[in-house]
Design a protein that fits this description.
The chain is α+β, with helices and mostly antiparallel strands and 254 residues long. It is 24% helix and 29% strand. Strands 1, 2, 3, 4, 5, 6, 7, 8 and 9 form a 9-stranded antiparallel sheet that branches. α5 packs across α6. The longest helix has 15 residues. The two termini are 35 Å apart.
Length: 254
């Protein structure tokens, strides 16, 4: 792993995402910021065949398209559809005993380098990733009939990148990051409230820096699979696999 990782309290809170739409040849980072829930949803029937490029559907294309750009297109659609948490994803890891584990987190950024989320570095998921960086992500937008599965390896983001993101978080979320001993036992909820009160008093009105035990992970993708719901279980699946110099794609039976 390169130097830098993780999040406390608020990472699974009510936040939606916003991003600047990019083209297939330009994949800008997706900026994820707190905002009000969007209204309205698209029914599953809106997942049309046209959502997958025609050359992909025909199977005649030998050159792989950019899966990150395709993810950004689908992600933008999820945001604009009004889904409450379009950035919600399952993050699956394997712990030191070889046992699998999974939890829901919010995606905080994505670009050509990978998918980013933040957490407390003393959390169960952070300890698992530092033991075994192999990780899987799953995005499922039921209202759109779409799913994206990602498999890759996690590496810690740099301190500068983590500091920059932490500075954008709501102040109360910053305080929670300092107060919560994520995944550690506590006597009751009152204990967390006590720690939050202590942290609030400690920082007063001063600027809150990022805790040394709080950072982010970037999942560098090795496989990205796109799934599009179709009638009678005739779903469309396209798998992109990382190869030297780009991506290789292939169709999979549903």
């Amino acid at each position: 792993m390169s130097s830098s990782v993780g999040n406390v309290g608020g990472e699974n809170g009510s936040q939606t995402a916003s991003l600047t739409r990019g083209t297939a040849s330009c994949c800008p980072i997706v900026k994820l910021e707190p905002s009000l829930p969007l209204a309205g949803c698209q029914p599953a029937e809106s997942a049309k065949l046209s959502d997958i490029p025609s050359e992909e559907r025909s199977g005649k294309s030998s050159s792989a398209h950019d899966p990150i750009a395709l993810f950004q297109t689908w992600f933008t659609e999820a945001i604009e559809s009004g889904i409450a948490e379009p950035s919600a994803m399952t993050v699956a890891t394997v712990d030191v005993h070889g046992s699998p584990d999974a939890r829901m987190l919010l995606l905080k950024g994505v670009d050509k380098h990978g998918f980013v989320f933040y957490t407390n570095l003393e959390s169960a998921k952070a300890r698992a990733l530092m033991h075994d960086p192999r990780v899987a992500l799953c995005f499922y937008w039921a209202e759109l009939g779409k799913q994206v599965r990602v498999r890759g390896r996690a590496e810690m983001v740099g301190d500068e990148e983590a500091d920059k993101y932490f500075a954008t978080r709501p102040r109360l979320s910053q305080i929670s990051a300092w107060a919560s001993k994520q995944s550690q036992p506590m006597r009751g909820y009152f204990e967390l409230e006590t720690q939050i009160a202590k942290s609030t008093f400690h920082f007063g009105f001063s600027e809150i820096s990022r805790p040394p035990f709080w950072s982010g992970f970037r999942v560098v993708p090795e496989r990205i699979e796109f799934w599009l719901q179709k009638p009678f279980r005739r779903h469309q699946r396209i798998l992109y696999e990382s190869v030297p110099g780009g991506w290789q794609k292939r169709w999979l039976y549903p």
